[in-house]
Amino acid sequence: MTGAEIIAAMKILQKPLNDLYEYLKDVANTEKDKILNTKNTKKLARHIESLGKVKTFWQLEKEVNINDFYYPSKIINPHDQDNIIGVNSLNDISKDNNFVIEGTVGQGKSIFLRYVCIQELREKSSGRIPIFIELRKIDASNMLSDATNKELDLLGLKVNESIFKCYAESGKFVLLLDAFDELDETQVNSVMRQIEFWCDQYPLMQIIVTSRPDTEIRKLAHFRILKMAPLDVTDHKHFFQKIGVKGSDLSELLKAIENSPQQISGLLTTPLLLTLLVLVYGFNKQIPEDLPEFFEALFSTVFMRHDRSKPYFKRKNMTGFNERKLEKLFKVFCFYVFFNKFGVSLNKNDFSKAFDKAINFFGEKCDEENFRNDIIKIACLMQNEGLQTTFIHKSILEYFTAAFISELNDEQANKVYETILSDFHDSIGFESIVIFLNKIDKYRFTKLFYVPGLDKAFANYGVESLYNFNGDFDHLMEAILHDFGVYYMTDQKNGEIIKLYCRSERMSPYYFFRKFYGEFGFTILNESQIFTDFNSLSRAYPSAKYIEGGEIRVQGDDIIQGDKLVNLKQRCRVRFNLFIEEINESKKYIEKEDAKITLLVDPFI
Questions:
Q1: Cα dihedral sign for 582, 587, 590, 595?
Q2: How big is the CA angle at 47 (ends 43 and 50), to the nearest 5 degrees?
Q3: CB-facing half-sphere around the CA of 443: CA atoms within 13 A
Q4: Helix/strand/coil (H/E/C) assignment for every residue in 313-356
Q5: Which residue in 329, 309, 310, 311 sits closest to 319, CA to CA?
Q6: Does 335 or 464 have the greater pLDDT score?
Q7: Cβ-count burial 7-30 (b if 16+ within 10 Å, e if not)
Q8: Quick one: 3-228 is in which CATH superfamily?
Q9: Average pLDDT in the 8-30 region?
Q10: Which of 65, 337, 348, 368 is most buried when burial is the number of CB atoms within 10 A of its CB?
Q11: Smallest Cα–Cα separation from 122: which of 82, 91, 164?
């Protein structure tokens, strides 16, 4: 920040700081000096501004200012899905509610939250002090309350339990919690309990959380959901210009997109994919056919981009591996990171554990530090963040894990798919990799996972196979609804969302029940999520009861009456019929591919 910018920011911060002091009159007089002195205000401004410094795909060597490349995000009006709202600061979001900002992979949720954070130093400020927390850094030794206190300390604001209470009650703080979906699964319940406590106790302290869709945070009654709007073709030119694509390069890129297959042009809806496209197209001068090709091309692109810009120079790989060998080892490494639930940020111990397993499977010798160096400085797919080594994006970990599985032999792949099918639930994040596997390993995905998974899901309800199902649908529906506790609904458009809870022993094929019910807004909870949700639920519905063994029940009259239950069954029937069509097509596909294998084994039959 320039001297003038610091002075301007300090002036803007002075108002909420003065207001804050009014809430601290009963605290020791030294607090006034601590909060209002010039040195501390400058420290506050500089720290908030520092949150706008990030590393990007095209500038990995040093941090850049968000303002230099940020293309404004938009949100979908929850009351009118066709109305897209631009968000340039927290002033564009109501202060009267807490919000979950939902976005898909690569939609720029974290950049968005950082941007509105630093806007609190500008004229567009909402007049509050932003507290920015990265939830992926929360663990058993650093709870959310600890991280919040630490951030307040970095902002130059003294904190203890009584002072934090004053801060939170003042309405002069806005808590910005980034990436709930990257929170360690062991910390989800404790973080939700802390957030719910703050919502109850401090209604004037707004809390805004970013997350991928359908995480547990959206279940808290205190939050409303705002969905980030996808980019469309009208955004492409302006986005590319913002990240530095100009002149003939811009014209060629836009023309290539116009001539690309619909399945690719239709995917270009996020900053991640548009940025990746710039990198890949810049070196290959063509656009990949589908999303997996994007990621496959990315490795080669980032591996060679520095070298191609320097004639006669070839960057030395510390591992001594060529591009393909390094990529193969990286895929194995990602697999062990993913299946050991280490997350996107690895401490030294977790990095070493994953590397040791990967190198044993890989079968060639390689020094751990040399591998780390090449993945960070050559492939540029991870980066150092203090004592952590972090994937530049969560989708990198997910794609290369799926790519590794797709390259396994049949015996190995069968074991992995069995593991996924037997332990499929959101907390471990399998849903993200099966999307890739359906593209790059379609035959084995369909035969080893999708078809047996669907059959397993409905076998609990007396259906031997969905293939050419001709059973009694009404009887099946009664069995399913009997097993589920109907317990909660919220308004959405002209109807309601009914959330269902299923007993844990019926939860094994989690993905398939999610798929079945998710089409019309149902949510399935597992037992570990019940207690946090039940607290809110019992306030809304006095008849709610928690039954030992893992059930929540609410009296039917509280939720569903007459036509609502009829409509529910009708929607279930429509979705079930689509499942029948899908399973029949999948079976035909498997039979066709099996026939090809027979021809390969004995071509003279």
A1: negative
A2: 140
A3: 13
A4: CCCCCCCCCCHHHHHHHHHHHHHHHHHCCCCCEECHHHHHHHHH
A5: 329
A6: 335
A7: ebbbebbeebbeebbebbeebeee
A8: P-loop containing nucleotide triphosphate hydrolases (3.40.50.300)
A9: 71
A10: 337
A11: 91
Strand order in the sheet with 388-391: 345-346, 388-391, 382-385
DSSP codes joined into one string, 197-220: HHHHH-TTSEEEEEE-TT-GGGGS
Candidates 189, 176, 136, 545; CA nearest to 341 is 136
Each domain of the chain, given as residue ranges in start order, spans 3-228, 233-308, 323-407, 442-605
The answer on pLDDT for 322 being more than 90 is no
DSSP β-bridge partners for residue 129: 173
What CA–CA distance (Å, rounded) separates 434 from 168? 42
Between residues 450 and 522, which one has the greater pLDDT?
450
Contacts of 284 (CB under 8 A, 6+ apart): 297, 301
C-alpha to C-alpha distance for 387 and 458, rounded to whole angstroms? 46
By the 8 A CB rule, do 250 and 259 touch? no
The beta strand positions in 212-312, using DSSP E, are 223-228
- Per the DSSP assignment, residues forming a β-bridge with 53 are 65
Question: Three-state SS for 553?
Answer: strand
Q: How far is Cα 423 from Cα 215, in angstroms, rounded to an integer? A: 18
DSSP string across 383-400: EEETTEEEES-HHHHHHH
Q: Are 288 and 264 in contact (CB under 8 A)?
A: yes
pLDDT at 26: 55
pTM: 0.65
Distance CA 97, CA 268 (A): 32
Judged by DSSP in three states, 246 sits in coil
Q: Could you give the C-alpha distances from 387 to 119, 315, 338, 356, 375, in angstroms and in order?
A: 29, 25, 20, 19, 16
CATH architecture of the domain formed by 323-407: Orthogonal Bundle (1.10)
Convert 347-385 to b/e letters by CB count within 10 Å (16 or more is b). Answer: eeebbebbbebbbeebeeebeeeebbebbbbbbbbbeee
CB 562 within 8 A of CB 505: no
Expressed in angstroms, the distance from the first to the final Cα of the chain is: 76
Nearby residues of 464 by Cβ (< 8 Å), 6 or more positions away: 455
Q: What is the DSSP string of 106-140?
A: TS-HHHHHHHHHHGGGSTT--SSEEEEEEGGG-BT
| 398: amino acid identity, one letter | E
CA 193 to chain centre: 20
- Position 567 confidence tier, pLDDT thresholds 50, 70, 90: low
